Amino acid sequence: MPTAAERQAVVFLTAVAVLGGSVRVLQSRSLDQAVAQAASLSPEDQASATEELSRQVSAVEQAKGKKTSSKKKGPPSEPIDVNTADVEQLDALPRVGPALAARIVADRDSLGPFDSLDALQRVKGIGPALALGLSPYVTFSTGLRPLHVDTYRGRPP
């Protein structure tokens, strides 16, 4: 004999299943009606309805903060100097996002400029694989070295 709690759980699960099925039926009916309505439109009306729908979708995506274009950022056309670049320029590098770009700038400001890909690896999030992948896209201008070598967090030079 089921307990009262078990009966309540069964009633609840049955109600959820019935409501879920009802929602699916209503959605399919409204979709069928929309398809039938679209089929009855002239080609010019179909084109304008499609354009209006795409504008509405773009507005919803922008409201949600999503980018409407799905293109990925490509590699920069010319090498970027890691020692002089700002966050936006570093963000243009492949596999470097805004957070990593900010860490690179913060590390450069606190410990001094980078002189090689090995020195760039002192930044958290940049390992040997990423440094090797960035090698065609970055350069290192000469500059002053950090005064305190003991603050260097990466591999020794």
Short description:
By secondary structure, this protein is mostly helical. The protein has helices spanning 4-39, 43-63, 87-91, 98-111, 117-120, 128-134, and strands spanning 80-81, 138-139. It has a two-stranded parallel ribbon.
Word description of this protein:
By secondary structure, this protein is mainly α. The chain is built from 6 helices and 2 strands. The chain has 2 domains: 4-63; 80-151, Orthogonal Bundle (DNA polymerase, domain 1), CATH 1.10.150. The N and C termini lie far apart (75 Å).
Question: What are the salient characteristics of this protein?
Answer:
mainly alpha, elongated, 157 residues, two-stranded parallel sheet, 2 strands, DNA polymerase, domain 1
Query: How many separate helices?
Result: 6
CATH class of the largest domain: Mainly Alpha
Give the strand tally: 2
- Strand numbers in spatial order across the main sheet: 1-2
Structural class: mainly alpha
User: Number of folding domains?
Assistant: 2
Q: Which regions contain 5 or more consecutive residues with pLDDT less than 50?
A: 145-152
Helicity, as a percent range:
55-70%
Q: Please name the CATH topology of the largest domain.
A: DNA polymerase, domain 1
Q: Determine the N-to-C terminus distance.
A: 75 Å
What's the shape? Answer: elongated
Say which CATH homologous superfamily of the largest domain is assigned.
Answer: Photosystem II 12 kDa extrinsic protein
CATH architecture of the largest domain: Orthogonal Bundle
Order of helices and strands: HHEHHHHE
Largest sheet: 2 strands, parallel
Mean pLDDT: 80
- Determine the strand fraction and express it as a percent band: under 5%
